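Can't paste images in this forum, so I'm doing it all in text. The chain is below; anyone willing to post the predicted structure tokens underneath?
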Amino acid sequence: MSRKLIAEALGTLILVLFGCGAAVLMGPQIGMTGIALAFGVSIVAAAYGLGAISGAHLNPAVSLGMLLAGRMRAGEFVGYAVAQCLGAVIAAGLLLVIASGKADYSVAVNGLGQNGYGEGYLGEYSLASALLFEAVMTFLFVTVILGATGAGAPAGFAGLAIGLTLAGIHLVGINVTGVSVNPARSLGPAVFVGGKALADLWVFILAPLAGGALAGLLYRAGVTRAAD
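Text version of the structure:
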């Protein structure tokens, strides 16, 4: 179990450091498309590098979906979620140290790729839009993960399918919420940015967990699972 938890922490670190790092360190150069690809590539890298150890959930919403789908135990879920959050916080801390090496960087001004909504945040979408987007996209994301890693799925392609799905979600929604679909990914930057990022954090915990839970329940009921 300790190997699985280390793999989850390390994989989530990769996700946050690559994805949020692209936004903070290279955002003006690569734009939203580049940031979306960075998040997707990070998932592919972690899935193929660490998936054989832990399954590379890297996301409490994914782990909750796995739990409710009957594919992991409650104790494993708690351990995975803690490890994922720890990895995300470490990644955000590393990113802050790196970004602070630039003379004109300020965490208050430039941020750490934190999620948000409303006035002053990217497209200034409403709370309702943020909740709906995060819940629906997490549901779709976890549905893809459960299907791509389930019995009957083509062997060896799960990491690619999952990474491309995450990149696609970012291409659609960066302007809405910055795209979380992952409570750990949102927690890491919010811890260091504080203020509005922390105040908005509940949205990026509640909505993704709700979407992941629904995906798990439908999979367990056989609605989204391949026929046995």
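The chain has one domain: 2-220. The chain has a mean pLDDT of 96.
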